[in-house]
Write a structure and sequence with these properties.
87 residues; YefM-like fold; 17% strand
Length: 87
């Protein structure tokens, strides 16, 4: 853990962030007037190994799911049909 004064942190901020991101450093403490005021640490990486298919088996897709596609497309285009006017 390094302690860096505020002026140094502002001057070398990009370099310090690169060191954190690369893993060369795991923490910096920034001080103002000799007193610690902030700590810079890396953000833990989120688990993203299994995103596609995460809900597989959680629900059943109805056979007629695509039945209203034309009507929904008309709604998105601001069109109305005689039997179902837009509100």
């Amino acid at each position: 853990m390094q302690t860096i004064n505020l002026f140094e942190a502002k001057t070398h901020f990009s370099k310090l962030i690169d060191q954190i991101a690369s893993g060369k450093e795991n923490e910096f403490v920034i001080s103002r007037n000799g007193k610690p005021v902030a700590r810079v640490v890396p953000i833990a990486k989120a688990e993203t190994s299994r995103r596609i298919g995460i809900a597989k088996g959680e629900f059943t897709i109805p056979e007629d799911i695509d039945q209203s596609n034309q009507e929904i497309a008309r709604w998105f285009n601001g069109e109305t049909s005689d039997d179902a006017p837009l509100a």
